[in-house]
Every structure is written in structure tokens, then in C-alpha cells.
Amino acid sequence: MAQHCALVFLFSLVFVLGVDAVNGGRGVDSNTQQPASVNYSELFTLLAQESHKEEDSNARLLGTPTIHPSRSFDPEEDLKTIDEALTELPGDGVGKLIKLATQRSFNQRAIVFNLYYAKTSKVLTEALASALGSSSEIFRGLEALLAPAAWRDAGYLHEAMAGAGTDDAELNEIITTRSYTQLQYIAKVYEQRFGSTLTDDIAGDSWGIVETLLIKIVTTPRTNEFATPDRVDELAQELYDAGAGRWGRDDEKFIEIFSSESYTTLRAVFHAYTAKFQTTVLDAVSSEFSRKAKDLYTTLVRVILSEPQYFADLIYTDIAGVGTNEPGLARHILARADVDLVEIKKAFLSKNKQSVSEAVQGDVSGDYLTLLLAAIEADSGTRAETLEHENSSRPVQLA
């Protein structure tokens, strides 16, 4: 533990002092896809801070990750593993990266990500994208784990809003399932990476109720206090009076309640609403709103009621029907492996009578399946033995 704390202090100090100082003033690799004006010293300082922060008091109920810290963590050795793997891509190097990605905690992986840049002046995920192809499913999967959360999520949001049209589902998903503190780090990294503010890009891609509500969620901290039973009942009445209980609709009241109250309070309000008015808030928003506003409010309600069930349902959608949504599986399984994948697995099994592992094996194959299973089953005491056993039968070497 003392060694780990020393490492955290050391690498945080490195990035506070400035990455360029470590590299003797060398610039960023000319092949990087980031804007020329990116201040990498400031950006990696943010990442070092974000990876070791305490979650804010507005965070939802903490879940259980499947991936846990390695007791033998040695970032210098992990850098050597990465260097070896990069020379072997595509091929055996993938297995080494899968093992590293699923047997190190998010803090440990963030240290490696930051140290890789300090040593090489290259961004790890960009090196992987160059070797594997930025659109390949295995790259998207490794990126979900090897990139610090704020870096990864900023990329997801930029992807959702870049180009013609907006991926509203991805945009709503990321913003409604991250805490206020997380969103502040994401917004800072977003601006550093892409040269525009998150709120400006939201405003440029959304309008009306959706624009107002998304920006309020990103910029306004929710109340810290859990409401009293009387206040819960009052809020349920206010929601009813703003929608079903009147002609027209009070959009400002809906936005105020959904963006300012804690998720714990809102969950209680939703239950009180059902008990009082014999209908659900989900039904209420479905009847009161349409199109994009309806989609956003529906996402919010589902997330507030049960975040694990929300992601379990997304996983089911990712693999149901014709084709597989591989980028979705990266967000809904791999990006949750450090958060609440244990609860997601339980919710999926309870509703679908099939485990997540069984479900993905029917739709995914190859290296990507190996990565998904390694993350899904990382909390199993036998998973490491299983991976070693697979070395003898799979073309991808994991050790």
C-alpha cells in the first residue's frame, strides 16, 4: 500500500510540474490527432487528478466493479509489456494488452497511461489506434479500459456530436450516468482535447428543452441533501402539476426538478408519484414529451430508477436482432467494469435468465470476445486460471 501511495504521489507530481519537463522539452508526436494547441501538461495534470479523486457527495449508490487492483502492480514493467505488445500487433500483443487492461484497477491503468506519455511523448490510445485501426472493435474495447475515464468519456461525447447529425442516445447516456464531479473533469478534458467547450458543442447540436436540460446537468451541482418525506411528496405533486395536472406543460419546473435534485431524492419522488397518482413518471414523461425531449427524459428516469438495469437493457439491445453493436458493448460492459458491472450482470441474469457471458458468446468472437469475457469475469477467482488455460488453445497469447 505504501508503495502504491508513493507511485500516486510521484506521477501526480510529474504532471503538476509538466510533462514536457520530463521529456526534455520534446513536442507531441506529429501523428497525433489532437489539435495543435492542446496543452498536454495541463491535460495530463487533469487526468492525474481525476484518476485519484474521491467521488462527490452527489454520486449515485456506488456499485461493485469486476476489475480489482493488482497487488504486484509495477508501472515500469507494464510499460515494457506495452512496448513488447506494440511490436507484436496485430497478433500475440493483443493478448498481453487484454491481460494488462483487465488485471489492473482504473487508478493503476491511469498511472500507466500518464507515464507512457511522460516517457514517449505519445498518447497510448493513439499508438494503439495506429497499430490496430481506430475503428476496429478490439481497439474500441481496449480504449474503454486503458484510457482514463475522463479522456474516454470526452471522446465518446465528441464522437456523439461530431459530423452530420447527433447520436442522441450516446450523448444522453454519458451525461445522465456520470456524476457532476465526473462531468466537470470530462468537460475540462473535452476542451483541452477538441478545442471547444462541451456546453458550446451541446448547444450547437441540440435545441430547446434538450439543450437546456443537458447543459443544466453538466453545469449545475445537484443538492447534497436527501429530501424529507414531506418534501418528496411535495416534489411528486409539483411534477404532476407541471404536466398531467394542467393544460399545457411547465417545462421550467420539469427541468428544475430533474436537474437539481439528487438521484436518491428523485428515485423516492418517482415512487411517491406512482403511489399518489396511480401512474409512473415514465408514463408521464412519455405522454407529456415527444421525440428528443421524450428520449432524454426517458433515459433520465430509467437511469435514476436503476442504473444497473439501464445498462443491462442496453447490453441486451446491443446483441439482440441482426448484427451486434460492438461500440455499445465497449461502453456498456467494458466502461462499467470499474463501476458497477457486478450489479449489471445480476440485473441482466434476473431479467433475461441468461448470463452476460453466455449472451456475448453467442454474438461476439475472437480477440474482442476474449477481452469482454476477461472484464466480465475478472471478479471470478478462477478467471486468471481460465485465461492461462486458454493460452494453449487460442492463437492470442495472454502471458
UniProtKB/TrEMBL annotation:
<dbReference type="GO" id="GO:0005544">
    <property type="term" value="F:calcium-dependent phospholipid binding"/>
</dbReference>
<keyword id="KW-0106">Calcium</keyword>
<dbReference type="GO" id="GO:0005886">
    <property type="term" value="C:plasma membrane"/>
</dbReference>
<dbReference type="GO" id="GO:0001786">
    <property type="term" value="F:phosphatidylserine binding"/>
</dbReference>
<comment type="similarity">
    <text>Belongs to the annexin family.</text>
</comment>
<dbReference type="InterPro" id="IPR018252">
    <property type="entry name" value="Annexin_repeat_CS"/>
</dbReference>
<keyword id="KW-0041">Annexin</keyword>
<dbReference type="GO" id="GO:0005509">
    <property type="term" value="F:calcium ion binding"/>
</dbReference>
<dbReference type="InterPro" id="IPR001464">
    <property type="entry name" value="Annexin"/>
</dbReference>
<keyword id="KW-0111">Calcium/phospholipid-binding</keyword>
<dbReference type="GO" id="GO:0005634">
    <property type="term" value="C:nucleus"/>
</dbReference>
<dbReference type="InterPro" id="IPR037104">
    <property type="entry name" value="Annexin_sf"/>
</dbReference>
<dbReference type="GO" id="GO:0005737">
    <property type="term" value="C:cytoplasm"/>
</dbReference>
<dbReference type="Pfam" id="PF00191">
    <property type="entry name" value="Annexin"/>
</dbReference>
<dbReference type="InterPro" id="IPR018502">
    <property type="entry name" value="Annexin_repeat"/>
</dbReference>
<protein>
    <recommendedName>
        <fullName>Annexin</fullName>
    </recommendedName>
</protein>
<keyword id="KW-0732">Signal</keyword>
<feature type="region of interest" description="Disordered">
    <location>
        <begin position="55"/>
        <end position="74"/>
    </location>
</feature>
<keyword id="KW-0677">Repeat</keyword>
<dbReference type="GO" id="GO:0012506">
    <property type="term" value="C:vesicle membrane"/>
</dbReference>
<feature type="signal peptide">
    <location>
        <begin position="1"/>
        <end position="21"/>
    </location>
</feature>
